[in-house]
Amino acid sequence: MVSVNRKVLYVIQATPGCNAPTKHAFAIADLMKCSGYNVEFLFAGIIDPRNRAIQEKYDYPFEFPEHLKLGHYSILKKYLERATSISSLKAFRESFERVKPDYVVYYGIESRLAAGILQHCQMSHVPVLVDETDWFDARFTGDLAAWMVEKSRSRRVEKVDCLADAVIAISQYFVTHFTLNKRNPNLKIFFLPPINRCNEVSDRIDFDLRKARKSTRFFYAGSPAGGKDQLLHFLAAVSHVGRECRTNAEAHIVGISPAQAEKMFGSLARCESVFFYGRRSHAEVIEMLRHADFGILFRRPERYAKAGFSTKFAECMSNGVPMLCNRVGGADLVIENEVEGLVIDDCSPLHMEEAIRFACEMDDAKLRDMKTAAFKKAQQLFNLDNYIEPFSAFMNELSRGA
Q1: Residue 176 CB contacts under 8 Å (≥ 6 apart), including other chains
Q2: Spatial contact of 382 and 193, defined as CB atoms under 8 Å apart
């Protein structure tokens, strides 16, 4: 265990709140805290000064630089910042001088800011770790700002991140990518799938065999608007299967309101087997999840699905809820099909419907076995306690190298 006086400055560009990036970053901070480090966060992205996130309280010290609080009418300043990262880098230098960190971690930032952080830290002999979770192909879909950000982040993963001292890789895809890089043979890599925060782990499976289930509940929480998650064919399959099996097929969708669902899915939104709940707090989502039979996640077989590792796997399996997902060569690799969950070859309506029928015909004892297997796998993969000792050793080695 390292000294508790060691300090980490963690730089992110996602707006904190009830979202996946915040959960991920705070879970990493939990691991660092358990390993003996004090963590402070720097929000190095553009934020509207009226955003409530500025006033909220967080589990860790969090700084919002004044010169990055740009209002609705500061369009040119926003584009300039996205193109240059000048103000973000200035904010980092100011935080660096104030915190005087022993380590710097950055997560989800743009390429120029990452390069500036690396240069500054190398001059100060402070190790830099990259928290690597996503790698999207930048596609222009009409939103110039979003395209600029995604293109910059992709360039960072490809050209800049390998120059850091270490990478915390969320997937085996990233482990392979950075292992094969030739620009920095001394780069250290630590594989860390999405871990649960200490207060979010269930200690039991809530499934009573004494009362036969009448429905099989499929659960999704998120936002498919960005195109990552594919729901249309799944909802059509649930609608088609309906009440034909031993148990009724039901889809429970959090994050999409009934009105939004009507626009996105048309008549499927009115199906009696499909339920939309709109946005809910994270605590409410976890409570609803614990009453589900399967979590669902369907993604296109592209790089973003292979490089990323959805937190949905960790949340669902850690609460005894097996996943129904498609095979993309990413997080699905951790599941043994029909033992810890259900994995289909693709998102075709035929394969989705077959999987739904299989799940709905499954007797309660078999479902209980699958829930237990998913829970046990989660205890191996997503339990923070399992990583404290190896992560502490990794950080110690990094410190000696620096």
Answers
A1: none
A2: yes
Residue type, 134: D
C-alpha atoms less than 13 angstroms from C-alpha of 55 in its C-beta half-sphere? 5
- pLDDT tens across the length of the chain (402 residues): 444 579 999 999 877 777 788 889 999 999 999 999 999 999 888 888 888 777 788 889 888 888 888 877 788 888 888 888 899 999 999 999 999 999 999 999 999 999 999 999 999 999 999 999 999 887 766 677 778 888 888 999 999 999 999 999 999 999 999 999 888 989 999 999 999 887 666 666 777 777 889 999 999 998 776 667 789 999 999 999 989 999 999 999 999 999 999 999 999 889 999 999 999 988 899 899 999 999 999 998 889 889 999 888 999 999 999 999 999 888 899 999 999 999 999 999 899 999 999 999 999 999 999 999 999 999 999 999 999 999 999 999 988 766
> Cα dist. 76→71, 82, 88, 89, 139 in Å?
11, 10, 16, 18, 22
Quick one: which H or E segment has residue 80?
Answer: helix 75-84
| pTM exceeding 0.70 | yes
Give the DSSP per-residue string, 148-206.
Answer: HHHHHHHHIIIIIGGGSSEEEESSHHHHHHHHS-SS-TT-EEEE-PPPPPGGG--SS--
Q: Determine the Cα–Cα distance for residues 205 and 318; give it in Å rounded to an integer.
A: 9
Q: Which tokens sit at 123?
A: 């001059």
Token reading at 249: 């097929």
At 82, the amino acid letter reads R
Place of tokens 């190095």: 44
Asked if 60 and 26 touch (Cβ cutoff 8 Å), the reply is yes
**Can you tell me whether residue 39 is helix, strand or coil?**
strand
| DSSP bridge pairs for 188 | 166
Spatial distance between the Cα atoms of 250 and 360, rounded to a whole number of angstroms: 10
